[in-house]
Every structure is written in C-alpha cells, then in structure tokens.
Amino acid sequence: MLTLTDEGLARNFEPAENVRRSSEEQVLVYLQASIVDSNILQVAADREIEHATGKNVQGLTRQLMSDFDANVVVHEGVHLPVHDVKSYFEANKALLDFDNYRSLLMERPVHTKSKNEAPAHFMPSAEVHRSLFGTGGTFAGSVSDSVVFRTVEVAEDAKVRHSVILQGGKIGAGADLSYVIMDKDAVIEPGVVLHGTPEMPIIVGKEAVVRAAKKQVTV
After folding, report:
1. Angle CA 184–176–143, to nearest 5
2. Which residue, 26, 37, 66, 115, shows the most beta carbons closer than 10 Å to its own?
3. CA-based R_g, the chain, Å
4. How far apart are CA 148 and CA 219, in angstroms?
5. Phi and psi of 46, rounded to 5°?
6. d(Cα 161, Cα 176) in Å, to the nearest integer?
7. 159 forms bridges with which residues in the sheet?
8. Which of 13 and 180 is assigned the larger pLDDT?
9. What is the dihedral of CA 102, 29, 24, 72, to 10 degrees?
10. Which residues, other chains included, contact 50 with Cβ-Cβ below 8 Å and sequence gap of 6+?
C-alpha cells in the first residue's frame, strides 16, 4: 500500500520554481484550488476516513500542503470567488468591467458547448447601456448595467437594471426590474415591478412565473 512518506509520491509536492513573493502591494489569497496527485489524495482520504476526522477535500489538501511543504503559484488575473447569492451577483456584474471580461474570456478563452444561433436582435425601441448580451435574444425595452444570457426576451417598455437574466428568460411589457437574478426560463409577466438591493438581490426561480398583483375593483 502507498503511504504518505513514499519518496515517489512526495516529489509531486516539491515547491514550485520561480514563485513570486507577495510585496507590500500584493496579498496572497488562497483561491480554494490545488493540484494534487490522485494517489496521494486517495491515501489521505483513506487515512482521514479511518480516523473519522471529518475533513472535507479542501481540508485534506490544506493538510497535504503543510505535510509536504508545498508552494504556491501566483495568479495575477481577476479573482471572482462565488460562495453565496451576493458574491454570485457581484461576480456577474464584474464582467461588465472590460478588463475583467478580457482577462477571463479573451486572454484565456473558456470553450463550452457550442450554441450556434442568430445574434441578439435589438428592436428600434430598445435602449441598452453597459450590458453583456448572449445570442438569440430579442430586446425591445431598456437594459442597463446587466448581464443577459442567451435567448432572453425583453418586451417594449420593460426596464431591466443591475440584473442577471439567465437563459430563456422572458420579461413582459412595462415590467420594471432592478437588482434581480432570474434563473433559466423564468417569466416576468407585463407590469411586474421587482426592486431588490445590491446587498439582497431578488431571486426568481427556474421556470417560475411572476404575475402582477390584481387590482381590486369596487363596484
């Protein structure tokens, strides 16, 4: 059986060469990512299970880094950790900064499953400002400071500000959205008003339908 002291395994954790040290202007932050030999990780996991320590994978890798005096590789690009709704919202909005967009998607392109479809269609009534749009959508209303995924529809007189609209979202005429996260294929019917805050965006669930409150009529 392999052990954590086997010389062949330990070599996988030799310190990286030419590592840049932090200066007064730089602070090293752990990005919750490690490169670990699978054999070492398996041995460590078996050991932790045997002793029932309750460590998760991140705890194991941190311990291994200490055991083998592992070193770091400095990542100088954009860092957008996502661990809750607020950080997810902020990470998406950060893509509206061109330097962040270029660093993440142009200098080191991320290749995902191809979706070949028509470009986004902007009607004469559309007003757009500082937003990122996916393909296949149709826009007749106004969109500003927002990240809009593919095949989204924004009807005439609708307003979308500071929001993240995922794939297939439909926003009806006269709707007014601010600081909203819409999951896939959600529908906002005409006249709906949803105003969240930067600290607490409103979340519309996947395939949810949000209707405007019915007005009471007195006879």
Report:
1. 70
2. 37
3. 24
4. 43
5. -60, -40
6. 8
7. 142, 176
8. 180
9. -90
10. none
